């Protein structure tokens, strides 16, 4: 196994453990054991638990932005309710089904009161990025006359807030994911019906 593959395995297993028990609830030896290696061997790849933790943060940030298409430019390609729903359901399903993103979200939730970086990332992902993205969508739809003119920021907040709550429920109750996805889709249909001209 290459060095990069071993490092990736260490990060994956450490993230899984951190997401279950929090950073402070996991010992370096447990990470090594989860990777089927002795603790001294783990130190060949990372200087310790804090190095692993920092590497997870960096990898997760890069992965999230790439896979969620955050910061890649304009959202004005959304022209109607059908395209809005398709885009939104893609994002929802991705964030629920991608193990790394799900575990990062769980880790951020656990550590948000102890780690300022993770606290800010949780706020960024669950509020700022979503607000910015959907504000741009709704501003574009207002310009096209597809929805009535108004405050696109408030409309964005109205749109994504219930979806964020549904995602949190999916993390807490993974056995209910199918029902919750159905609820998210029903909410999007309701929003489109009441908002679009």
Describe this structure in words.
The chain is mostly helical. The chain is built from nine helices and no strands. The protein has helices spanning about 5-20, 30-35, 40, 50-70, 80-95, 100-110, 115-145, 150-170, 175-195. Helix 5 packs antiparallel against helix 9. The longest helix has 28 residues, at about 115-145. The chain is elongated.
How many DSSP E strands?
0
- SS content category: mainly alpha
How much β-strand is present in the residues?
A: under 5%
Helix content: over 70%
Order of helices and strands: HHHHHHHHH
Strand count, sense and barrel status of the largest sheet are: none
Distance between the first and last residues' Cα: 57 Å
Rg result: 19 Å
Number of helices: 9
Task: Please tell me the overall pLDDT.
Answer: 89
Taking pLDDT < 50 over at least 5 consecutive residues as the criterion, the unreliable ranges are none
Outline: elongated
């Amino acid at each position: 196994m290459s060095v990069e593959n071993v490092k990736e395995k260490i990060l994956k297993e450490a993230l899984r453990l951190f997401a279950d028990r929090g950073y402070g609830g996991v010992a370096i030896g447990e990470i090594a054991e989860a990777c089927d290696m002795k603790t001294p061997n783990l130190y060949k790849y990372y200087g310790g638990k804090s190095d692993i933790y920092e590497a997870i943060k960096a990898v997760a940030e890069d992965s999230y932005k790439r896979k969620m298409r955050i910061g890649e430019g304009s959202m004005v390609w959304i022209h109607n309710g059908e395209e809005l729903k398709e885009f939104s359901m893609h994002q929802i399903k991705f964030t629920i089904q991608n193990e790394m993103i799900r575990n990062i979200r769980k880790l951020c939730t656990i550590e948000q009161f102890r780690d300022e970086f993770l606290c800010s990332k949780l706020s960024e992902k669950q509020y700022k990025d979503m607000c910015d993205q959907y504000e741009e969508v709704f501003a574009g739809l207002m310009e096209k006359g597809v929805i009535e003119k108004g405050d696109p920021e408030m409309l964005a907040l109205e749109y994504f807030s219930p979806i964020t709550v549904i995602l949190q429920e999916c993390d807490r109750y993974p056995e209910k994911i199918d029902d919750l996805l159905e609820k998210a889709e029903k909410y999007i249909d309701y929003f489109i019906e009441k908002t679009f001209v």
